[in-house]
């Protein structure tokens, strides 16, 4: 497949050159019918560093579930990343409120939503999965559970994020912008927005062929207090079925929830679509339902099937995803898009 050739070339060129390649570059890779090695993929340019952390698990023969948890903790801790974990931009009332989910190949899953004061919500999501009879804990109940589990209560609003919030308060205009992930992190040179949302979704397959996924975010900056996006909603922001594949999403969560996006991508793969084609179809469902609104919003899907093949698609140009396996540690690819 030409896409694979482009990907290999791009891996050599490095992440920034790839980003500049824009829509002309590869947007899916096919590693053959049966991948024998491990692979991890994740959304946006900050996925490169996250993948490397995940690879520290996968490269040692570790479990995909441990890999995705370890990987997404990198942007959760990154003070330059203003919408995942610590230093995330707050809601319109100044509270940093975090959403996260994790899912294993057998359908086990856990999530937290509107969780405050805990720096690594993905770890709490995993505890929900492994130590409770539930799937999703929210708000004060999620915080109470986290504290019972020994997590530290912290102030996550940094001076920089607080200053950005105070500047936003001067107009208090809520308008999610396209690809704000890029400018908020600021490395790729892809077209950006005003920096009010970003999310890491990560999918991995380990050397034993086990799939897992994780997704974590502080959601849309300046959101209403109590707003929950797609990221902690199993089937919307994340879905994994070990017999088929895995999918995750980024962008305006309301549109993803309305279309149960990640579940849809996995079901399309179950019907025989490639990961890229499944992502394209899921994006088109959003565009067809709301053609006018779609012109000004971004949603991107990223998918991996049970063979380790990867694909992505977005409404707008500018969505990138990072790929890491034994051949290449820091590939960053631009996804194809509707517009
Ligand atoms: C949300 N989907 O909370 C997340 C935000 C996001 O890129 O992914 N931004 O709606």
UniProtKB/TrEMBL annotation:
Pfam families according to UniProt: Asparaginase_2
Coiled-coil positions: none
Domain of life: Bacteria
Family matches, as CDD domains: Glycosylasparaginase
SUPFAM superfamilies to which the protein is assigned, alphabetical: N-terminal nucleophile aminohydrolases (Ntn hydrolases)
Matches recorded under InterPro entries: Ntn_hydrolases_N (IPR029055), Peptidase_T2 (IPR000246), TAT_signal (IPR006311)
Database matches in PANTHER family: L-ASPARAGINASE (PTHR10188), N(4)-(BETA-N-ACETYLGLUCOSAMINYL)-L-ASPARAGINASE (PTHR10188:SF6)
Protein name as it appears in the record: N(4)-(Beta-N-acetylglucosaminyl)-L-asparaginase
Natural source organism: Dyella halodurans
Lineage, uppermost ranks: Bacteria, Pseudomonadati, Pseudomonadota, Gammaproteobacteria, Lysobacterales
């Amino acid at each position: 497949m030409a896409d694979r050739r482009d990907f290999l070339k791009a891996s050599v060129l490095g992440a920034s050159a790839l980003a500049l390649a824009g829509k002309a570059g590869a947007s899916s890779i096919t590693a053959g019918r049966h991948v024998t090695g491990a692979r991890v993929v994740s959304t946006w340019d900050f996925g490169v560093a996250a993948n490397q952390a995940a690879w520290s698990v996968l490269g040692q023969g570790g479990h995909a579930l441990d890999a995705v948890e370890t990987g997404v903790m990198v942007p959760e801790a990154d003070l330059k990343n203003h919408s995942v974990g610590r230093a995330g931009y707050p809601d319109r009332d100044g509270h940093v409120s975090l959403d996260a989910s994790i899912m294993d190949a057998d359908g086990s899953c856990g999530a937290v939503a509107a969780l405050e004061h805990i720096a690594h919500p993905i770890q709490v999501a995993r505890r929900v999965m492994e130590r409770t009879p539930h799937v999703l804990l929210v708000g004060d109940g999620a915080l109470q559970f986290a504290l019972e589990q020994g997590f530290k209560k912290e102030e996550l609003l940094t001076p920089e994020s607080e200053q950005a919030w105070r500047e936003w308060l001067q107009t208090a205009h809520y308008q999610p912008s396209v690809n704000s992930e890029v400018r908020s992190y600021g490395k790729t040179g892809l077209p950006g927005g005003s920096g009010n949302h970003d999310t890491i979704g990560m999918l991995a397959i380990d050397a034993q062929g086990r799939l897992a996924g994780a997704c974590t975010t502080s959601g849309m900056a300046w959101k209403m207090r109590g707003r929950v996006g797609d990221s902690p909603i199993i089937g919307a922001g994340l879905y994994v079925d070990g017999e088929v594949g895995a999918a995750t999403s980024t962008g305006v969560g309301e549109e993803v929830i309305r279309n149960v996006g990640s579940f849809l991508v996995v079901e399309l793969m179950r019907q025989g679509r490639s990961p890229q084609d499944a992502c394209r179809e899921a994006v088109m469902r959003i565009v067809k339902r709301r053609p006018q609104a779609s012109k000004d919003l971004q949603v991107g899907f990223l998918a991996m099937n049970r063979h380790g093949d990867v694909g992505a698609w977005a409404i707008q140009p500018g969505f990138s995803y990072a790929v890491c396996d034994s051949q290449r540690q820091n590939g960053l690819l631009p996804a194809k898009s509707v517009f």
